[in-house]
Design goal:
By secondary structure, the chain is of the alpha/beta class. It contains 13 helices and twelve strands. The strands form two sheets. A seven-stranded parallel beta sheet has the order 8-7-6-9-10-11-12. Helix 1 packs parallel to helix 13, helix 5 crosses helix 8 and helix 9 packs parallel to helix 10. It is elongated and about 65 Å long. Bound molecules: NADP nicotinamide-adenine-dinucleotide phosphate and 2-keto-D-gluconic acid. The site of NADP nicotinamide-adenine-dinucleotide phosphate has 30 residues, from helix 8. The site of 2-keto-D-gluconic acid has 8 residues, from loops.
Length: 320
């Protein structure tokens, strides 16, 4: 047991396995996930760690005078104010790698669903239209012969690229720095990548540079045979521009697991026939979420036992 007196704050909902695992080692203080942290000054002083899924803004971090570590559920940690944590010397951890395979599998499934309209075809069968009306119409699009561009070739992007190889599609990518360990073509800008390819898969973090980076110009460059797949963050895409592009044929189709203002999805997107929509489920299997939950708990356990987190984020590096 690392330290029975350490209290970990758990704001709002998190995978129950996180709390089960942490309860074996720490006191747990569960609180509502509102705008303000509503606990007494004395209780705030007792808290040395946080386990959180989603937002942890600066005012929460500043309200915890003895905070040492924030363990965030998910590889993307854009909800946590890491700059505020870094200013205070608070370590932030995330859950990289354990979800790569699940998210990459979902990206491929979403791509195929989008080009071949498989969810719509299943609905056709379930509604009895196959027997009543005949075969589902041929899908206008196919994966065959496509040139796929990946925005972001990090841990997950690389797994997506590797899964695409057996589909015999051409693969290119855009990142700020070219990778030295792959043979795929690198494009220095997103617009150049979009001009070269007919299929764009986005798997980048939410940062000031990526927000709305897939805009009207990029969609126009992707072209009328173009397919956009987003499994990264909804904020990467200018949703208004995307809806217009899908409506007027600027691009052919889109598959989206993430949205600008989750869990709200614009009705205009839902109404469009040429989109495939998922409710942010790319990592959402029991085995993968269990692995993510374990990594949240193991980070806090390691920190309070050894003074070192397992997977700190780059903005809050550990002292050598
Ligand atoms: P990662 O290993 O850090 O990879 C990020 C990639 O994005 C890198 O190749 C990076 O390359 C590139 N990148 C970052 N900023 C960029 C920019 N401004 N322009 C172009 N490329 C940029 O992250 P990961 O583990 O693969 O995860 C990626 C993101 O996917 C997460 O942050 C999360 O938001 C999202 N995600 C979503 C789900 C889901 O459920 N839908 C699940 C997991 C992850 P450079 O640094 O060289 O630019
Ligand atoms: C989760 C994700 O859905 O890891 C991420 O960045 O977006 C997903 O795996 C998210 O952490 C919320 O549970």
């Amino acid at each position: 047991m690392p330290n029975a007196r350490v209290t970990i704050l758990v704001p709002g909902r998190i995978n129950p396995r996180v709390v089960d695992r942490l309860s074996e080692h720490f006191e747990i203080r569960a609180v509502p996930h509102g705008k303000e942290l509503e606990i007494s000054r004395g209780d705030a002083e007792a808290i040395r760690g946080v386990a959180v899924s989603g937002a942890l803004p600066a005012n929460w971090i500043e309200a915890l005078p003895n905070l040492e570590m924030i363990a965030s559920f998910g590889v993307g940690y854009d909800g946590v104010d890491v700059a505020a944590a870094a200013r205070r010397g608070v370590i932030v951890s995330n859950t990289p790698d354990v979800l790569n395979d699940e998210v990459a599998d979902t990206a491929i499934a979403l791509l195929i669903n989008t080009v071949r309209q498989l969810p719509q075809a299943e609905t056709w069968l379930r509604q009895g239209r196959w027997s009543a009306e005949g075969p589902y119409p041929l899908s206008p699009l196919s994966l065959k012969g496509r040139h796929v561009g990946i925005q972001g070739l990090g841990r997950i992007g690389l797994e997506i690229a590797r899964r695409l190889e057996p589909f015999k599609v051409r693969i290119s990518y855009h990142t700020r720095r070219p990778r030295t360990d792959v043979g795929y073509g690198h494009y220095a800008s997103l617009i150049e990548l979009a001009e070269a390819v007919d299929t764009l898969i986005s798997i980048v973090p939410k940062t000031p540079e990526t927000v709305k980076s897939i805009n009207a110009d990029v969609l126009k460059a992707l072209g009328p045979n173009g397919v956009l797949i987003n499994v990264g963050r909804g904020t990467t895409v200018d949703e208004t521009a995307l809806i217009a592009a899908l409506k007027d044929g600027t691009i052919a189709a889109a598959g989206l697991d993430v949205f600008e203002n989750e869990p709200q999805v614009p009705q205009a997107l839902i109404d469009l026939p040429n989109v495939s929509l998922l409710p942010h489920v790319a990592s959402a299997s029991v085995p993968t979420r269990n692995a993510m939950a374990d990594l949240v708990a193991d980070n806090l356990i390691a920190w309070f036992k050894t003074g070192r987190a397992l997977t700190p984020v780059p903005e809050t590096p550990q002292k050598p």
